[in-house]
Write a structure and sequence with these properties.
globular, seven-stranded mixed beta sheet, alpha+beta, 1 helix, 94 residues, 63% strand
Length: 94
């Protein structure tokens, strides 16, 4: 697994889970998002999903208004689908 976010990379499943759980819980408490636009394609042994969205609200006493994009690539293995790659990016809405 390889996750790119905020100019860095996380290469382990355990590291990604630990980092993301705390951050996602804290941010989710104060912000909401609009319905993301998404597209997906699947083949017998691989699939990808791409989405765009907007997040607004308050975090740590500050207003949040950001646009984000996510791409996820999955691969089918003998025991089921696995995430092969994730890329998240975001920037302040203009």
């Amino acid at each position: 697994m390889l996750i790119f976010e905020g100019g860095g990379a996380e290469r382990s499943k355990a590291g990604a889970a630990q980092q993301l759980r705390a951050a996602d819980a804290a941010i989710s408490a104060g912000v909401g998002g609009d319905g993301a636009r998404a597209a997906a394609r699947a083949r017998p042994d691989s699939a990808w999903i791409a989405s765009e969205g907007r997040t607004t609200g308050q975090f740590n006493g500050r207003p949040v208004d950001s646009l984000s994009a996510e791409t996820m690539v999955l691969r089918r293995e003998a025991d089921g689908w696995r995430i092969a790659h994730v890329h998240w990016s975001s920037h302040a809405a203009r």
